[in-house]
Amino acid sequence: MSEDKVLGSPNFKWFGLAIQSLVVLSKCPESCPSGEIAARVKSEATMLRRILSRLACQGILETREGRVGGYRLKRAPEEITLEEVYLALQAGESFCSPMLETTGDHAFGREMHASFFNIIGEVNEHVLIVLRKYTIADLM
Fold first, then answer.
1. Taking Cα atoms as reference points, which of 49, 78, 76, 81 lies closest to residue 65?
2. Three-state DSSP class for 59?
3. String of DSSP letters for 70-138
4. More confident: 11 or 114
5. pLDDT at position 93, please?
6. Range(s) of the domain holding residue 105
7. Of residues 42, 54, 44, 46, the one with CA closest to residue 15
8. 79: Cβ–Cβ under 8 A, 6 or more apart, which residues?
9. DSSP conformational letter for 39
10. DSSP, res 3
11. What angle do CA 63, 67, 69 make, to 5 degrees?
12. pLDDT of residue 3 exceeding 70
């Protein structure tokens, strides 16, 4: 099974799909069903629903059930930063953390783990600084 199909393993593909979905939703005056969003971003609807579910849990989207159900933005596009979306998908884990899994439990591996940990921390800090500058409205 590919990594993007595993709920606990978000990646930059998820981030890209989330951003595109939010841009689509920012142009919809009413709720928009996941199938319609998936068709617009050329993605698989089931995976997209997983992504949208995370965004809803983090208060970025609201969901509506029923015949006119679907998703809609909970706030104005100008108020939703890319940093917020990134952190919502991250679920407490860095997108770079799989890099740590490449180190082994031996002397060299532990040294590399410590170095990778520091680098990942710095990369994440800079990623958040950049993403904080942009909102969904900037991409519309």
1. 49
2. coil
3. EEEESS-GGG-BHHHHHHHHHTTS-TTGGGGGGS-SSHHHHHHHHHHHHHHHHHHHHHHHHHHT-BHHH
4. 114
5. 62
6. 3-139
7. 54
8. 135
9. H
10. G
11. 15
12. no
Rounded CA-CA distance 100/4 in Å is 19
Residue 5's pLDDT band, with cuts at 50, 70 and 90, is: very low
Report which of 123, 87, 117, 121 is spatially closest to residue 101, judged by C-alpha positions. 117
* Residue 58, phi then psi, degrees to nearest 5: -95, 5
Count CB atoms within 10 A of the CB of residue 86. Answer: 22
Mean pLDDT confidence for 26-42 = 94
Nearest to 96 by CA among 31, 1, 5, 12: 12
CA 48 to chain centre: 11
User: What's the longest Cα–Cα distance across the chain?
Assistant: 59
Q: Which residues contact 118 (CB under 8 A, 6 or more apart)?
A: none
User: In 10 A of CB 123, how many CB atoms?
Assistant: 14
- The CATH number that applies at residue 74 is 1.10.10.10
Q: How many residues does the chain have?
A: 140
| Residue range 83-100: mean pLDDT, rounded | 79
Provide the number of structural domains found in the chain.
Answer: 1
